[in-house]
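To make this tangible, this section ends with a sequence with its structure tokens:
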Amino acid sequence: MYTPDELRQLQALVAQWRAGDWHAAHNGVQHYPGLLAAWLHGILHLQEGDLEDAENWYDRAGKRFRQRETWDQELAQLDTALAQALEQSTAAGAANS
């Protein structure tokens, strides 16, 4: 489970990638464990053209590499997953305080 701060940092890495700095996004995502980070890592390897590593990271994320969506759909799904995880993590933190 991610903390709200970690989820915001993953969102920032996606924004970095969208801004064209995928090398920095790739370097940053390597510091995070978990399914969402693995999914982002896989997407970044796709962009790089490294299909073998991309498939490996998709597997780690519990995603089916050969049944992935288009770029836009993958990004929309990742954005949604990060936003939902952030909402749940924030709500859980509020309930525990």
Summary: The chain is about 75% helix and 0% strand.
